[in-house]
Write a structure and sequence with these properties.
This protein is globular. The protein is 22% helix and 16% strand. The two termini are 28 Å apart. Strand 1 (26-30) and strand 2 form a beta hairpin. The chain has six helices and eleven strands. By secondary structure, the chain is α+β, with helices and mostly antiparallel strands. It has helices spanning 2-13, 63-78, 149-159, 171-180, 228-232, 257-261; strands spanning 26-30, 33-37, 40-41, 45-46, 49-51, 60-61, 84-86, 108-112, 164-169, 191-193, 200-205. It has one domain (2-261): 2-Layer Sandwich (Muramoyl-pentapeptide Carboxypeptidase, domain 2).
């Protein structure tokens, strides 16, 4: 928690940077300590998706990330499903982005599970939207009023996007997927249980091949599907609590990021 407090203090004292760093795409660092130059912004809406909370969120990413989000929206739209709500991607130049531990290099995006019918709202009217949890409040299972095969289809479409490294979902959602689908498809190993992620999935993309300073997170190892690893999340039938003090977070930015993040 001490690290998180220090990070918030640093962010609050730093000048906001509203524009991306100019020049060609450069992605530097790991998911927890990184920056990006040459980022592009996701349009406020498009076929199958709408940004939400634009007053407090940021929608800048690598061109490949933006293209993948638009591809997922188009697939959802073609299937006749309601628009997706899109959350944070990264700041215009990346770097630490409270309250996230990642979202620092334009390769992460939060996409809400909400597939309820929704109108296309003006951007300002989306600032206070609060999409529903897909889990129940105890996080022991999914909300039966919202859970359907369409939710599994959505996560599967996301897993088939180009260059997906992994997708984080709440452990209760992963368990519901494991119980609903047999046999388990090959893409299931990309869907990882993690704390939180009750209302949105977090998609992480791999580094583009032409970005040598971008360091990939190793792909999920075998065995993260539906067996012993998933059971670890539910000791005594209850969701495993977050470690005391939270997940340690102490980013040390690569030296090459200092010039990119300089106002």
């Amino acid at each position: 928690m001490r690290y998180l407090v220090l990070l918030f203090a640093l962010l609050l004292s730093a000048p906001a940077i509203a524009a991306p760093a100019p020049g060609p795409l450069r992605i530097i660092g790991t998911n927890g300590a990184a920056c990006i130059a040459g980022a592009v912004e996701l349009p406020p809406h498009g076929p199958g998706y709408q940004q939400i909370r634009a007053d407090k969120s940021s929608f800048w990413g690598a061109p490949s990330t933006i293209a993948a989000i638009e591809q997922l929206g188009a697939e959802v739209h073609a299937a006749g499903l309601p628009d997706l709500y899109i959350g944070d991607i990264a700041l215009p130049r990346g770097g630490p982005f409270a309250p996230h531990f990642s979202h620092q290099r334009g390769l992460d995006v939060d996409i809400y599970y909400d597939l309820l019918p929704k109108p296309r709202l003006p951007l300002a009217a989306r600032d206070n939207l609060d999409p529903p949890w897909l889990t129940n409040r105890a996080m022991t299972g999914v909300n039966p009023k919202l859970w359907s095969r369409d939710e599994i289809r959505l996560i599967g479409w996301a897993a088939h996007l180009p260059h997906v490294n992994r997708i984080f979902v709440n452990p209760a959602i992963k368990r519901a997927m494991c119980e609903a689908v047999h046999p388990h498809p090959a893409w299931f190993h990309l869907v990882q249980a993690w704390w939180g992620h009750t209302a949105h999935m977090h998609i992480r993309f791999s580094c583009p091949a032409d970005q040598p300073a971008c360091i990939n997170q190793p792909p999920p190892p075998p065995g993260l599907d539906c067996g012993r690893f998933l059971a670890w999340w539910f000791p005594n039938g209850h969701p495993r609590p977050l470690p005391r003090g939270g997940v340690p977070f102490h980013p040390v930015l690569p030296a090459a990021c200092h010039a990119i993040l300089k106002p």
